[in-house]
């Protein structure tokens, strides 16, 4: 599987926050900004409210794995910022994945399913 490219610099995060749009549900907020001629990049912001460093890093690893497994479903030309909300700590992997895919679908950043008529 391909590695997930990440947003690293504060300038990149600020650009997505300022010019992008956001959509949320009870578990996660996703900011997204179309970027042309680039690969999809993802940034994660996990608050100290989500727990100590061990909990926050585990949550970032879970989120990164969800995106790694579902990159073929997400459009390639978007910069994304994912911010988990507090009740996500008590969720398992499949619930987190379902929530992220639902929010991505509402945002319109999922690829169209070509197998459905």
Number of domains: 1
**Largest sheet, spatial ordering of strands:** 1-2-4-3
Number of helices: 3
Helix/strand order, N-terminal first: HEEEHEH
CATH class: Alpha Beta
Radius of gyration: 14 Å
Low-confidence stretches: none
- Into which percent range does the helicity of residues fall? 25-40%
Counting helices, strands and paired strands, the structural category is alpha+beta
DSSP strand count = 4
CATH topology: Ribosomal Protein S5, domain 2
Beta-strand percent range? 15-25%
| Major sheet | 4 strands, mixed
Q: What's the rounded overall pLDDT mean?
A: 90
Which architecture per CATH?
2-Layer Sandwich
Shape: globular
How far apart are the termini?
29 Å
Task: Sum up the structure in keywords.
alpha+beta; Ribosomal Protein S5, domain 2; 4-stranded mixed beta sheet; 37% helix; globular
Summed up, what is this model?
This protein is an alpha+beta fold. It has helices at about 10-20, 55-70, 95-105, and strands at about 20-25, 30-35, 40-45, 80-85.
